[in-house]
Specification:
one-carbon metabolism; 2 domains; purine biosynthesis; EC 1.5.1.5; 14% strand; Rossmann fold; 3-stranded parallel β-sheet; binds ligand LMY7XDAE; alpha/beta; EC 3.5.4.9
């Protein structure tokens, strides 16, 4: 079997074009300029690259991008204060804190300092609860992008056995919740899981989000499985051994060109959603009192 590739690039381009149209309309009709604030702590080169990619794509879509870069020695209190300031700034509609943050920072405390209405990256507990209950709300961008991709390729989710490898707060955990909310039967696995290959072999859908290059081997896969590679390792190498997986699976996401572009497209889409929602709830000036 040679797997069909689930390409994210084209779908992502459509989503970005749609976000750009909606941003332009919002600007024309209400004067509101959608704005995403990106917050980068420290000098990790890969994180800096991802943030730059997000800023560039925002600009191309007519979304303002405001950049906050903090030193590697930033404390939790300093980062929380910065995020609280952005949360209270009415000209900022979405906030992205690039993960991971340096080890001395309590990342959960930092994420929770983001106003849930501006959490366009879906990292707060508020967003997580909405994903878990299948309620409307912002989605974590990579998991939300994965679901869009699976839907675009008509992958049946209801009743499917999905094995998620990895339990990070921005990837594995919310991916499992979104699949569960779509009626998949979800098994979470992680670094302490015993007998991982045998568990993966029972999966109709595999979501690999471990951060280890070529970790998932072809012999672990059930013939005809759907394989989503959410790895973003150095050198654009995924978590799945691509050549082996395509020989066994029915559908596979490539790296690059699969899940990555969907992540950024959903971030832009949710930023425009946030700007629109905030424009609708903003206090309007009372006529004659301006
Ligand atoms: N706060 C967050 N932090 C991180 C997230 C996230 O969604 N929110 N995700 C990852 C990395 N990431 C975005 O930050 C990311 C990684 C890769 C890509 C991407 O589009 N990759 C391309 C290839 C790269 C290239 O073209 O040079 C691809 O797969 O085609 C987007 C986003 C960690 N942190």
């Amino acid at each position: 079997m040679t797997a069909e590739l689930m390409i994210g690039t084209e779908l992502a381009a459509e989503m970005v074009a749609n976000a750009a149209t909606r941003a332009g309309r919002l600007r024309a009709e209400t004067g509101v300029q959608p704005c995403l604030a990106t917050v980068l702590v420290g000098d990790d080169p890969a994180s800096a690259t991802y943030v730059r990619m997000k800023q560039n794509r925002c600009r191309k879509a007519g979304i303002e991008s405001r950049s906050v870069v903090l030193p590697a020695a930033t404390t939790t209190a300093e980062l929380v204060a910065e995020l609280a300031k952005l949360s209270n700034d009415p000209s900022v509609h979405g906030i992205l804190l690039q993960h991971p943050v340096p080890g001395q920072i309590d990342e959960r405390a930092a994420f929770e300092a983001i106003d849930p209405g501006k959490d366009v990256d879906g990292v707060t507990m508020h967003a997580f609860a909405a994903m878990a209950f299948g309620e409307p709300g912002f989605r974590s961008c990579t998991p939300g992008g994965i679901l869009r991709l699976l839907q675009a390729y008509d992958v049946p989710l209801s009743g499917a056995h999905a094995v998620v490898i990895g339990r990070s707060p921005i990837l594995g955990k919310p991916a499992g919740m979104l699949l569960l909310a779509s009626d998949a039967t979800v098994t979470y696995t992680h670094s302490r899981t015993v007998g991982l290959p045998d568990i993966v072999r029972t999966a109709d859908i595999v979501v690999a989000a471990v951060g280890k290059p070529n970790f998932v081997r072809g012999e672990w896969l059930k013939p005809g499985a759907v394989v989503v590679d959410a790895g973003y390792n150095e050198g654009n190498v995924g978590d799945v051994h691509f050549a082996e997986a395509t020989a066994v699976a029915r559908l596979v996401t490539p790296v690059p060109g699969g899940v990555g572009p969907m992540t950024i497209a959903l971030l832009l889409e949710q930023t425009v959603d946030a700007a629109q929602a905030q424009s609708e709830t903003a206090v309007q000036p009372v006529a004659g009192l301006a």
